[in-house]
Amino acid sequence: MKLRKPSMPPASYIVTVVLAAVFLVLGNRVAGGKLFPEEEGTELIRARTLAVVSVERDNYSQDDDSLVMTTVTFDAKALEGPRKGMTLRCRQEIDNVYGLALPQVKARDVVLLDVQKAGDGPSAYVLVDFVRTAPLILLGVLFAVLLVLSGRKKGADTLLSFVFSILSIFLVLVPALLSGHNIYLWSLLICVYIVVTNLLIVQGASSKSLCAALGCLGGVLCAGLIMLLVNRPMHITGLIEEDSIFLKAMGIDIRATVFCMILIGSVGALMDVAMDIAAALKELRQGRPGITGKELMRAGLNIGQDLIGTMANTLVLAYIGESMGLLLVMIHYSPSAAYMVNREMIAVAILQCLAGCLSVLAVVPLTSFFCSLFYTSKPPKTVEY
């Protein structure tokens, strides 16, 4: 039996991957370069706890409340840097004035230490947080392996497009926002990049990808337009959480960040709906070569009716799940439902959900229209099953 040689990827695939990588490099430079600024004098190292040496508790009062400061002294082995392999005497301070204080360190915990230098004297090592990257890396590797095993080449392409999407946000969009660039423009640019890169890598250059991309981008523009239209009537300021105050102090247009949230949060669902319709209508065109553009459009709208119901539920439940903690706090501390809904943080969450659902409604007819236009422009290719 002859072994079949693996086929080379098409030129469009290679060009897409190269251009996607070039965009990330150039986009990162234009956006502002480094994601995390280096703070002078700050040094953090990873270490593994060997043993807890002592635990001391000091009582003190603040505003007539009796509080406890717990100081945990422990030994840890440095895992990186010039101190790698050395045993360090460290401390952890736990103040019960903070309701979300870190749990007490135990042996074999991997922790992040802040190296506090004191002139010519010995450095002090203070626990900052626990290192949580190991389980995340294991889950990420498991996801990648299962995706490739189940989807083979399609799974590998999906993984590659997923990596490009994540990198575009953290290497281009976030630095651009932190550098003071136009948030509206860069949000739209990243959405276009995600849609085009994903569809070309996973589906290849075809009329199906073109129709899905045009329909999806139309939905993205619809979501952005909704935000711009309701911006003034809803008196959106962008102060939807405590972090917004810090963003405002950094000179970032916090109102525009809401626009960015809506676009980035909806582009994935819109791309899913657009591709489902484009793929279904492509198969319908192949099975019925004589179908007219009007019939194809009607079929796309019928298919979209089923997709709208499930996708709207997906968006609503995803946004509710994401805001569950905030929702519980608002319900507990709000005197009425009207007061809670009119709080800007809740109103923006509802706006994000409704804008996503309305943009899904726009994607269905847009994608169906482009499919009826491009699929019927030339005779379909015969497919042998």
Q: Segments where pLDDT lies below 50 for 5+ residues?
A: 1-6
Order of helices and strands: HEEEEEHHHHHHHHH
Please list the strands of the largest sheet in the order they lie side by side. 1-2-3-5-4
Overall pLDDT, averaged?
A: 85
Question: Treating each run of at least 4 consecutive H or I residues as one helix, how many helices?
Answer: 10
What does the radius of gyration come to?
27 Å
Task: Report the principal-axis shape.
Answer: globular
Q: Give the terminus-to-terminus CA distance.
A: 23 Å
* Strand portion: 5-15%
- Structural class category: alpha+beta
Please give the largest β-sheet: 5 strands, mixed, barrel
User: Helical residue percent?
Assistant: 55-70%
How would you describe this protein?
- This protein has 385 residues and is of the alpha+beta class.
- The longest helix is centred in the middle third of the chain and has 46 residues, at 133-178.
- The model is unreliable at 1-6 (pLDDT under 50).
- 60% of the residues lie in helices and 15% in strands.
- Strand 4 (110-116) and strand 5 form a beta hairpin.
